[in-house]
Amino acid sequence: MKIGILSRNSKLYSTRRLVEAAKERGHEPLVIDVLKCYMNITANRPTVHSKIQGEVTQVDVDAVIPRIGASITAYGTAVLRQFEVGGVYSVNESIAITRSRDKLRAHQLLARKGVGMPITSYAHSVDATEDLIASVGGAPLIVKVIESTHGNGVVLAETNKAAESLINAFRSLDADFLVQEFIKEAGGSDIRCFVVGDRVIAAMQRNAAEGEFRSNLHRGGSAQVVKLKPEERALAVRAAKVMGLDVAGVDLIRSAHGPLVIEVNSSPGLEGIEKATGKDIAGSIIQYIEKDSKKGPNKPKGKG
Predict the structure, then answer these.
(1) CATH 3.30.470.20, applies to 185-295
(2) CATH 3.40.50.20: does it fit domain 2-92?
(3) Looking at residue 59, what DSSP letter applies?
(4) pTM for the complete prediction?
(5) Is there a contact between 244 and 227 (Cβ–Cβ < 8 Å)?
(6) Can you list the alpha helix ranges (DSSP code H) found in 154-200?
(7) Looking at residue 126, what is its pLDDT?
(8) Of 57, 127, 234, 272, which residue has the fewest beta carbons closer than 10 angstroms?
(9) What pLDDT score does 246 carry?
């Protein structure tokens, strides 16, 4: 198979591992920078063109693996849609990626399906600040920008006064954000479940660095292998399915009332979890594509 990896940087760990895994299984990988693509939108033969080895040429692949960064979601998913319209299999569809990237929409979809999450509220009116804080149980609480990644735009407010100031400051910047219950008993730890298809193939516990409440490895957090409970595995797979993602990083926290989903990532990094667990996750993704692509071009999963 010719497998296109939609990535802006061929030197990134995740991209390199996917290239290696594809080659090891006898496939022909091609790294495609979506920002260097243009689309020929026609009724009979929609195509994608890109500069490859110094020449602009039509991109001809059998399957694609989208590794689209949050900052280029709009154009990246537009290019991915063009592949989909042209009948190319994608392990994660464009509509599923846009669902997961919009945190408000993602929370609404998860809530509609009864997926457990920390209490979350969203509002726009300045007059609703006090009610907004009260709705999640008061401080301490988390404020999240709707489109944040790697812990950026996620702030902890330890008192109601601090929360009020923070919310008003975000509003003055005309930023859309969520206010979320802070799960103190999680102790600055969360669990990244790597879902491929209908199962969790690897999981690690991420622990926040000293003085930090965010457990992201990009922020100095540490990782270790963790044994999941059956209900945690089921919750992670269910959350990915609600988003319509076949490959996803589902982040959970353990609360006093059971596991809760805090985020579903459509382009989960491979480096941290492969090194923490010693598992060949890139290889598992390629194996899944080999099997699933035989069904033909995939159709959007999930709703909303």
Answers:
(1) yes
(2) yes
(3) -
(4) 0.88
(5) no
(6) 160-172
(7) 62
(8) 127
(9) 97
Helix/strand/coil for 245: coil
User: What are the E-state strand segments in 8-69?
Assistant: 28-32, 37-40, 47-52, 55-58, 63-66
Is CATH 3.30.1490.20 correct for 119-182?
A: yes
**Amino acid symbol at 188:** G
Q: Which residues of the chain does CATH 3.40.50.20 include?
A: 2-92
DSSP, res 67:
-
DSSP character at residue 225:
E
Mean pLDDT of 274-284: 97
Residue 214, phi-psi category: left (phi > 0), alpha (psi -120 to 50), beta (remainder): beta
Using DSSP, state whether 198 is helix, strand or coil. Answer: coil
Q: Alpha carbon 35 to chain centroid distance? A: 20
- Region(s) of the chain under CATH 3.30.1490.20: 119-182
Distance CA(233)–CA(196), nearest Å, equals 12
Residue at 159: amino acid letter: T
Kindly list the strands in the beta sheet with 2-6, ordered across the sheet, starting from the edge strand earlier in the chain.
28-32, 2-6, 63-66, 89-90
Question: What pLDDT, in 10s, does the model give residues 96-125?
Answer: 999 999 888 999 999 999 999 999 998 766
